[in-house]
Amino acid sequence: MIGNAEQLENAVWLLCVAALWGGTNPFIRQGSKGIENIKKDNAIKQFLYELVFLFTNLKYLIPFVLNQCGSILFYITLSSADLSLAVPITNSLTFIFTSISGKLLGEHIGSKETYIGMVMVIIGVSLCVISKL
């Protein structure tokens, strides 16, 4: 059984994962703009040109690397985290961080119901964490 302090520590690490994943999603989306304009005559050329486009574009590459750091942190944290906490914390909070970062970048994130939903997700995740302590 995992102790309370370790559970809380894992929850904090999973929050960091969600922040890395969600915080970088809008930047990855913005950094990949223009890829749809690449048109080549066969699938292999198309794939290679798209890879070159993405990996020579720092607006895409930096958020992508940070996003992958979140994946590494998630993998490491899973070794000691309770899966019944790991999945809801990361998936639901990733959505919230994506919405917040998108809003900060000028994207439209929805109506007041979206914000109410975010608050409810935070409450739900908090209840999950508290129930495990």
From TrEMBL:
SUPFAM superfamilies: Multidrug resistance efflux transporter EmrE (SSF103481). It is a multi-pass membrane protein. Its main location: membrane. It is found in: Membrane. GO terms for cellular component: membrane. This is Transmembrane protein 234. The keyword Membrane applies. InterPro entries: EmrE-like (IPR037185), TMEM234 (IPR018908). PANTHER family: TRANSMEMBRANE PROTEIN 234. Keywords: Membrane, Transmembrane, Transmembrane helix. The lineage of its organism: Eukaryota, Metazoa, Spiralia, Lophotrochozoa, Mollusca. Belongs to the TMEM234 family. The chain crosses the membrane at residues 12-28, 48-66, 114-132. The keyword Aminoacyl-tRNA synthetase does not apply.
